[in-house]
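User: Just a sanity check before I run the rest of the batch. Below are the C-alpha coordinates for the first item. I only need the designed sequence back.
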Protein backbone atom coordinates (compact mmCIF):
# COMPACT_ATOMS: atom_id res chain seq x y z
CA UNK A 1 0.00 0.00 0.00
CA UNK A 2 1.20 3.50 -0.79
CA UNK A 3 2.80 5.18 2.24
CA UNK A 4 1.93 8.87 2.58
CA UNK A 5 3.50 11.32 5.02
CA UNK A 6 2.89 15.02 5.52
CA UNK A 7 3.29 17.61 8.23
CA UNK A 8 2.21 20.98 9.47
CA UNK A 9 4.29 23.42 11.49
CA UNK A 10 2.83 25.06 14.62
CA UNK A 11 4.21 28.55 14.02
CA UNK A 12 0.88 30.34 13.78
CA UNK A 13 -2.85 29.81 13.48
CA UNK A 14 -3.66 27.56 10.54
CA UNK A 15 -4.93 29.28 7.43
CA UNK A 16 -7.17 28.71 4.45
CA UNK A 17 -3.91 28.14 2.51
CA UNK A 18 -2.97 25.20 4.77
CA UNK A 19 -6.46 23.81 4.41
CA UNK A 20 -6.94 24.09 0.63
CA UNK A 21 -3.30 23.38 -0.23
CA UNK A 22 -2.89 20.35 2.01
CA UNK A 23 -5.20 19.35 4.87
CA UNK A 24 -8.35 18.97 2.81
CA UNK A 25 -6.74 16.42 0.48
CA UNK A 26 -5.33 14.52 3.44
CA UNK A 27 -8.80 14.07 4.90
CA UNK A 28 -10.77 13.66 1.68
CA UNK A 29 -8.43 11.40 -0.27
CA UNK A 30 -5.07 10.41 1.20
CA UNK A 31 -6.23 8.78 4.42
CA UNK A 32 -8.70 6.59 2.50
CA UNK A 33 -6.43 5.32 -0.26
CA UNK A 34 -3.10 4.95 1.52
CA UNK A 35 -1.29 4.10 4.70
CA UNK A 36 -0.91 7.69 5.85
CA UNK A 37 0.82 9.59 8.66
CA UNK A 38 0.12 13.24 9.48
CA UNK A 39 2.38 15.02 11.87
CA UNK A 40 2.47 18.27 13.84
CA UNK A 41 6.12 19.10 13.22
CA UNK A 42 6.85 21.00 16.41
CA UNK A 43 10.67 20.71 16.20
CA UNK A 44 10.45 22.83 13.05
CA UNK A 45 8.74 25.60 15.04
CA UNK A 46 11.93 26.11 17.07
CA UNK A 47 13.95 27.30 14.08
CA UNK A 48 12.88 30.94 14.47
CA UNK A 49 12.39 33.19 17.47
CA UNK A 50 9.65 31.46 19.49
CA UNK A 51 7.70 31.59 22.70
CA UNK A 52 7.70 28.10 24.31
CA UNK A 53 4.18 28.38 25.73
CA UNK A 54 2.83 29.54 22.36
CA UNK A 55 4.46 26.66 20.49
CA UNK A 56 2.86 24.20 22.93
CA UNK A 57 -0.52 25.87 22.53
CA UNK A 58 -0.29 25.97 18.75
CA UNK A 59 0.84 22.34 18.60
CA UNK A 60 -2.24 21.23 20.53
CA UNK A 61 -4.41 23.45 18.36
CA UNK A 62 -2.90 22.12 15.11
CA UNK A 63 -3.46 18.53 16.21
CA UNK A 64 -7.06 19.36 17.13
CA UNK A 65 -7.59 21.04 13.76
CA UNK A 66 -6.17 18.05 11.90
CA UNK A 67 -8.83 15.91 13.53
CA UNK A 68 -11.47 18.61 13.02
CA UNK A 69 -10.64 18.70 9.31
CA UNK A 70 -11.69 15.06 9.08
CA UNK A 71 -8.58 12.96 9.76
CA UNK A 72 -9.76 9.74 11.35
CA UNK A 73 -7.33 7.98 13.72
CA UNK A 74 -8.91 4.68 12.71
CA UNK A 75 -7.70 5.29 9.15
CA UNK A 76 -4.41 7.13 9.59
CA UNK A 77 -1.75 8.00 12.15
CA UNK A 78 -1.80 11.48 13.69
CA UNK A 79 1.08 12.42 15.97
CA UNK A 80 3.55 15.04 17.17
CA UNK A 81 7.07 14.98 15.73
CA UNK A 82 8.96 15.49 19.01
CA UNK A 83 7.22 12.45 20.52
CA UNK A 84 9.13 10.21 18.12
CA UNK A 85 12.90 10.41 18.66
CA UNK A 86 13.64 8.75 15.33
CA UNK A 87 13.16 12.08 13.49
CA UNK A 88 16.05 13.80 15.25
CA UNK A 89 18.17 10.66 15.12
CA UNK A 90 17.80 10.30 11.37
CA UNK A 91 18.22 14.01 10.81
CA UNK A 92 21.78 13.86 12.11
CA UNK A 93 22.63 10.94 9.83
CA UNK A 94 21.25 12.87 6.84
CA UNK A 95 23.28 15.94 7.83
CA UNK A 96 26.25 13.72 7.13
CA UNK A 97 25.24 13.36 3.48
CA UNK A 98 23.83 16.88 2.89
CA UNK A 99 26.05 19.81 1.98
CA UNK A 100 26.23 23.33 3.28
CA UNK A 101 25.84 24.67 -0.28
CA UNK A 102 22.57 22.88 -0.96
CA UNK A 103 21.11 24.12 2.32
CA UNK A 104 21.99 27.72 1.49
CA UNK A 105 20.26 27.45 -1.88
CA UNK A 106 16.85 26.72 -0.31
CA UNK A 107 14.44 29.54 -1.14
CA UNK A 108 12.64 29.38 2.21
CA UNK A 109 15.94 29.56 4.06
CA UNK A 110 16.97 32.64 2.12
CA UNK A 111 13.62 34.34 2.74
CA UNK A 112 13.38 33.46 6.41
CA UNK A 113 17.03 34.24 7.17
CA UNK A 114 16.61 37.65 5.50
CA UNK A 115 13.47 38.28 7.56
CA UNK A 116 15.22 37.39 10.83
CA UNK A 117 18.11 39.69 9.95
CA UNK A 118 15.76 42.55 9.03
CA UNK A 119 14.22 42.18 12.50
CA UNK A 120 17.68 42.53 13.98
CA UNK A 121 17.80 38.91 15.18
CA UNK A 122 20.36 36.26 14.40
CA UNK A 123 19.74 33.21 12.24
CA UNK A 124 19.51 29.92 14.13
CA UNK A 125 21.61 27.07 12.80
CA UNK A 126 18.46 24.93 12.86
CA UNK A 127 16.91 27.22 10.25
CA UNK A 128 19.71 26.25 7.88
CA UNK A 129 19.36 22.53 8.61
CA UNK A 130 15.54 22.62 8.60
CA UNK A 131 15.21 20.83 5.22
CA UNK A 132 17.34 17.94 6.50
CA UNK A 133 14.98 17.41 9.42
CA UNK A 134 12.10 17.56 6.96
CA UNK A 135 13.84 14.92 4.82
CA UNK A 136 14.22 12.77 7.95
CA UNK A 137 10.48 13.15 8.69
CA UNK A 138 9.70 11.78 5.25
CA UNK A 139 12.41 9.14 4.80
CA UNK A 140 11.99 7.56 8.25
CA UNK A 141 8.66 6.12 7.14
CA UNK A 142 9.53 4.70 3.73
CA UNK A 143 7.23 7.35 2.28
CA UNK A 144 6.12 7.11 -1.35
CA UNK A 145 4.08 10.32 -1.57
CA UNK A 146 4.22 13.69 0.19
CA UNK A 147 1.02 15.70 -0.33
CA UNK A 148 1.94 19.38 0.08
CA UNK A 149 1.30 22.86 -1.29
CA UNK A 150 3.60 24.25 -3.99
CA UNK A 151 5.89 26.02 -1.54
CA UNK A 152 7.28 22.69 -0.26
CA UNK A 153 8.27 21.34 -3.69
CA UNK A 154 11.94 22.35 -3.35
CA UNK A 155 12.22 20.69 0.06
CA UNK A 156 10.79 17.43 -1.29
CA UNK A 157 13.23 17.59 -4.23
CA UNK A 158 16.08 17.89 -1.74
CA UNK A 159 14.67 14.93 0.19
CA UNK A 160 14.81 12.88 -3.00
CA UNK A 161 18.41 13.94 -3.64
CA UNK A 162 19.45 12.97 -0.11
CA UNK A 163 17.71 9.59 -0.36
CA UNK A 164 19.38 8.78 -3.67
CA UNK A 165 22.80 9.91 -2.42
CA UNK A 166 22.52 7.91 0.79
CA UNK A 167 21.38 4.80 -1.10
CA UNK A 168 24.24 5.12 -3.59
CA UNK A 169 26.90 5.58 -0.93
CA UNK A 170 25.72 3.21 1.77
CA UNK A 171 23.41 0.72 0.10
CA UNK A 172 19.69 0.79 -0.52
CA UNK A 173 18.01 2.10 2.64
CA UNK A 174 15.38 4.69 1.67
CA UNK A 175 12.36 4.80 -0.60
CA UNK A 176 12.69 7.84 -2.90
CA UNK A 177 9.47 9.84 -2.34
CA UNK A 178 7.63 12.27 -4.60
CA UNK A 179 5.56 15.37 -3.89
CA UNK A 180 1.90 15.56 -4.87
CA UNK A 181 -0.04 18.83 -5.13
CA UNK A 182 -3.75 19.67 -5.27
CA UNK A 183 -5.32 20.39 -8.68
CA UNK A 184 -6.17 23.98 -7.71
CA UNK A 185 -5.13 26.18 -4.78
CA UNK A 186 -1.67 24.65 -4.45
CA UNK A 187 -0.59 28.19 -3.57
CA UNK A 188 -3.27 30.38 -2.00
CA UNK A 189 -2.15 33.99 -2.00
CA UNK A 190 -2.56 36.69 0.65
CA UNK A 191 -5.82 38.56 -0.05
CA UNK A 192 -4.15 41.95 0.50
CA UNK A 193 -0.87 41.12 -1.27
CA UNK A 194 -1.74 38.65 -4.00
CA UNK A 195 1.90 38.34 -5.04
CA UNK A 196 2.76 36.75 -1.66
CA UNK A 197 1.68 33.41 -0.26
CA UNK A 198 -0.99 33.36 2.47
CA UNK A 199 1.36 32.30 5.28
CA UNK A 200 0.44 31.51 8.89
CA UNK A 201 3.71 32.82 10.30
CA UNK A 202 3.15 36.23 8.73
CA UNK A 203 1.88 39.08 10.83
CA UNK A 204 -1.80 38.90 11.60
CA UNK A 205 -3.43 40.69 8.77
CA UNK A 206 -6.62 41.27 6.90
CA UNK A 207 -5.20 39.29 3.97
CA UNK A 208 -5.09 35.98 5.85
CA UNK A 209 -8.16 33.82 6.46
CA UNK A 210 -7.68 31.65 9.53
CA UNK A 211 -9.52 28.35 9.88
CA UNK A 212 -11.05 29.51 13.14
CA UNK A 213 -12.15 32.96 11.93
CA UNK A 214 -15.84 33.66 12.58
CA UNK A 215 -17.98 33.66 9.39
CA UNK A 216 -18.40 37.44 9.46
CA UNK A 217 -14.67 37.94 9.74
CA UNK A 218 -14.14 35.64 6.75
CA UNK A 219 -16.74 37.57 4.75
CA UNK A 220 -15.12 40.90 5.60
CA UNK A 221 -11.64 39.69 4.64
CA UNK A 222 -12.78 38.26 1.31
CA UNK A 223 -14.95 41.29 0.44
CA UNK A 224 -11.96 43.55 1.10
CA UNK A 225 -9.54 41.46 -0.98
CA UNK A 226 -7.35 43.52 -3.29
CA UNK A 227 -8.43 43.08 -6.89
CA UNK A 228 -6.72 44.28 -10.04
CA UNK A 229 -7.18 47.47 -11.96
CA UNK A 230 -9.14 45.88 -14.85
CA UNK A 231 -12.89 45.37 -14.59
CA UNK A 232 -13.46 42.12 -16.41
CA UNK A 233 -13.21 38.84 -14.56
CA UNK A 234 -10.42 36.90 -16.29
CA UNK A 235 -8.18 34.12 -14.98
CA UNK A 236 -4.60 35.31 -15.45
CA UNK A 237 -2.19 34.62 -12.56
CA UNK A 238 0.52 36.94 -13.90
CA UNK A 239 -1.48 39.94 -15.02
CA UNK A 240 -4.42 39.65 -12.58
CA UNK A 241 -3.11 37.93 -9.47
CA UNK A 242 -5.82 39.22 -7.11
CA UNK A 243 -8.75 38.02 -9.20
CA UNK A 244 -6.95 34.78 -10.11
CA UNK A 245 -6.52 34.06 -6.40
CA UNK A 246 -10.24 34.55 -5.71
CA UNK A 247 -11.14 32.34 -8.69
CA UNK A 248 -8.82 29.61 -7.42
CA UNK A 249 -10.20 29.80 -3.90
CA UNK A 250 -13.76 29.64 -5.25
CA UNK A 251 -12.84 26.74 -7.55
CA UNK A 252 -11.20 24.85 -4.71
CA UNK A 253 -14.21 25.39 -2.43
CA UNK A 254 -16.93 24.73 -5.00
CA UNK A 255 -15.30 22.00 -7.08
CA UNK A 256 -15.18 24.00 -10.35
CA UNK A 257 -12.23 25.21 -12.32
CA UNK A 258 -10.96 28.80 -12.30
CA UNK A 259 -11.04 29.39 -16.08
CA UNK A 260 -14.65 28.26 -16.38
CA UNK A 261 -15.67 30.30 -13.33
CA UNK A 262 -14.13 33.45 -14.83
CA UNK A 263 -16.73 33.26 -17.63
CA UNK A 264 -19.58 33.10 -15.16
CA UNK A 265 -18.87 36.39 -13.37
CA UNK A 266 -19.38 39.88 -14.71
CA UNK A 267 -18.22 41.85 -11.70
CA UNK A 268 -15.63 41.60 -8.97
CA UNK A 269 -18.37 42.25 -6.39
CA UNK A 270 -20.38 39.13 -7.21
CA UNK A 271 -17.21 37.02 -7.47
CA UNK A 272 -16.16 38.17 -3.99
CA UNK A 273 -19.59 37.56 -2.51
CA UNK A 274 -19.78 33.98 -3.81
CA UNK A 275 -16.17 33.29 -2.81
CA UNK A 276 -16.82 34.55 0.71
CA UNK A 277 -19.88 32.31 1.08
CA UNK A 278 -18.05 29.30 -0.38
CA UNK A 279 -15.18 29.75 2.09
CA UNK A 280 -17.59 30.16 5.03
CA UNK A 281 -19.33 26.91 4.04
CA UNK A 282 -16.08 24.97 3.59
CA UNK A 283 -14.80 26.08 7.00
CA UNK A 284 -18.08 25.66 8.89
CA UNK A 285 -17.77 21.91 9.66
CA UNK A 286 -14.11 22.34 10.64
CA UNK A 287 -14.97 25.08 13.16
CA UNK A 288 -17.86 23.07 14.56
CA UNK A 289 -15.85 19.89 14.96
CA UNK A 290 -12.98 21.89 16.49
CA UNK A 291 -15.34 23.25 19.13
CA UNK A 292 -16.54 19.72 19.95
CA UNK A 293 -13.00 18.40 20.23
CA UNK A 294 -11.91 21.26 22.48
CA UNK A 295 -14.54 20.10 24.95
CA UNK A 296 -12.78 16.72 25.12
CA UNK A 297 -9.02 17.36 25.33
CA UNK A 298 -8.45 13.86 26.74
CA UNK A 299 -9.56 12.40 23.41
CA UNK A 300 -7.02 14.43 21.41
CA UNK A 301 -4.25 13.50 23.87
CA UNK A 302 -5.13 9.82 23.53
CA UNK A 303 -5.02 10.03 19.73
CA UNK A 304 -1.58 11.64 19.88
CA UNK A 305 -0.27 9.10 22.36
CA UNK A 306 -1.38 6.15 20.24
CA UNK A 307 -0.25 7.89 17.08
CA UNK A 308 3.27 8.39 18.45
CA UNK A 309 3.48 4.75 19.48
CA UNK A 310 2.43 3.56 16.03
CA UNK A 311 4.77 6.04 14.32
CA UNK A 312 7.72 4.94 16.44
CA UNK A 313 7.14 1.33 15.45
CA UNK A 314 7.05 2.30 11.79
CA UNK A 315 10.12 4.55 11.83
CA UNK A 316 12.47 2.48 13.95
CA UNK A 317 13.39 -0.29 11.46
CA UNK A 318 14.33 2.21 8.73
CA UNK A 319 16.27 4.49 11.05
CA UNK A 320 18.09 1.48 12.56
CA UNK A 321 18.97 0.33 9.05
CA UNK A 322 20.35 3.79 8.18
CA UNK A 323 22.33 3.79 11.43
CA UNK A 324 24.00 0.49 10.52
CA UNK A 325 24.46 1.33 6.83
CA UNK A 326 26.34 4.57 7.52
CA UNK A 327 28.89 2.81 9.73
CA UNK A 328 27.63 3.03 13.31
CA UNK A 329 27.95 0.10 15.63
CA UNK A 330 24.54 -1.24 16.67
CA UNK A 331 23.91 -1.05 20.41
CA UNK A 332 24.28 -4.51 21.94
P1 LIG B 1 3.62 24.52 6.64
O1 LIG B 1 3.32 24.28 8.06
O2 LIG B 1 4.10 25.87 6.24
O3 LIG B 1 2.34 24.21 5.78
C1 LIG B 1 1.60 23.01 5.92
C2 LIG B 1 1.04 22.63 4.56
O4 LIG B 1 0.21 23.67 4.06
C3 LIG B 1 0.68 24.04 2.75
N1 LIG B 1 0.47 25.49 2.59
C4 LIG B 1 -0.16 26.05 1.56
N2 LIG B 1 -0.74 25.53 0.48
C5 LIG B 1 -1.32 26.39 -0.39
N3 LIG B 1 -1.33 27.73 -0.21
C6 LIG B 1 -0.76 28.31 0.85
N4 LIG B 1 -0.78 29.62 1.03
C7 LIG B 1 -0.12 27.45 1.81
N5 LIG B 1 0.53 27.68 2.98
C8 LIG B 1 0.91 26.46 3.43
C9 LIG B 1 2.15 23.69 2.73
O5 LIG B 1 2.63 23.53 1.41
C10 LIG B 1 2.16 22.40 3.52
O6 LIG B 1 1.82 21.31 2.70
N6 LIG B 1 8.07 22.40 5.96
C11 LIG B 1 6.65 22.15 6.07
C12 LIG B 1 6.28 21.21 7.19
C13 LIG B 1 6.95 19.88 7.13
C14 LIG B 1 6.61 18.82 6.27
C15 LIG B 1 7.51 17.75 6.63
C16 LIG B 1 5.71 18.67 5.22
C17 LIG B 1 7.95 19.46 7.95
N7 LIG B 1 8.29 18.18 7.66
C18 LIG B 1 7.46 16.54 5.96
C19 LIG B 1 5.67 17.45 4.57
C20 LIG B 1 6.54 16.40 4.92
C21 LIG B 1 5.95 23.45 6.34
O7 LIG B 1 6.54 24.38 6.81
O8 LIG B 1 4.61 23.42 6.09
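Assistant: Here's the designed sequence for the first item:
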Amino acid sequence: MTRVFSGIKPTGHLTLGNYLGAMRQWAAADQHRSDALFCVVDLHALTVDHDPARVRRLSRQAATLLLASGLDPELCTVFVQSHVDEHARLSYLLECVATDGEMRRMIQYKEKAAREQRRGGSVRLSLLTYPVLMAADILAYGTDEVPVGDDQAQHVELTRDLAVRFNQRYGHTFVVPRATHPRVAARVMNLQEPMSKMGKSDDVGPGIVYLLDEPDVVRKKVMRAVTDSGREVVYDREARPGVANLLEILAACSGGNPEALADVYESYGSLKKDTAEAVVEVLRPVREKHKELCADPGYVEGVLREGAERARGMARPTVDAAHRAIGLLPAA
